Amino acid sequence: MYGTLSSEFDNQYARMLRAHSELIGGATVTGSIFRVSDYPGYKPDPPGVVHGEVYRLNGEERILADLDAWEAPDFQRIAVRASNGEEVWIYSFLGEPPLADRIASGDFCAP
C-alpha cells in the first residue's frame, strides 16, 4: 500500500486491512504517484519508484472486495512486481492527473 491504507494512517479501511493481514514490510514498485485531492494515485507511467508496504491477507478474500468497493470508481486493483520479488496488488488511478501533481519522491508521506 502506498497511500491512505498504509500503517501511517488510521482510517476505517486501513484499520480493517491491518486487522485481517500481516505487514510483510516495505517495498517499492515501478511507476509514479500523483497528489489527487487528499490522497495519492498510482500510475505505471512515467517511470519512477513508488514506496509502500506489502501486506499478506489472512485468507479473508472478502477484504479485497471491501477495499475494491471503497477504491471504486476512481481506482482499479492491478498486479505488479514489487522490489521484494513478489507479485502484489496495487490500486492504479484511472484518471489522468497533471504531471505537475506528481510526487517526485514516490513517497506520499514524505513528498
Account of the protein in words:
This protein is α+β, with helices and mostly antiparallel strands. It has a single domain (12-98), classed as Hypothetical upf0131 protein ytfp. The protein is 16% helix and 39% strand. The radius of gyration is 13 Å and the shape is globular.
How many individual helices? 2
Query: Termini separation (Å)?
Result: 16 Å
Shape, principal axes of CA atoms? globular
Provide the structure class. alpha+beta
Give me the strand/helix succession.
HEEEEHEE
- Named at the architecture level, the CATH assignment is Roll
Number of domains: 1
- Could you tell me the strand content as a percent range? 35-45%
At the first level of CATH, what is the class?
Alpha Beta
Spatial order of the strands forming the largest sheet:
1-4
**Number of strand elements:** 6
The proportion of residues forming helix, as a percent range, comes to 10-25%
Sheet bearing the most strands, described?
Answer: 2 strands, antiparallel
Provide the low-confidence segments as ranges.
none
Radius of gyration: 13 Å
CATH topology: Hypothetical upf0131 protein ytfp
Mean pLDDT rating: 94
CATH superfamily: Gamma-glutamyl cyclotransferase-like
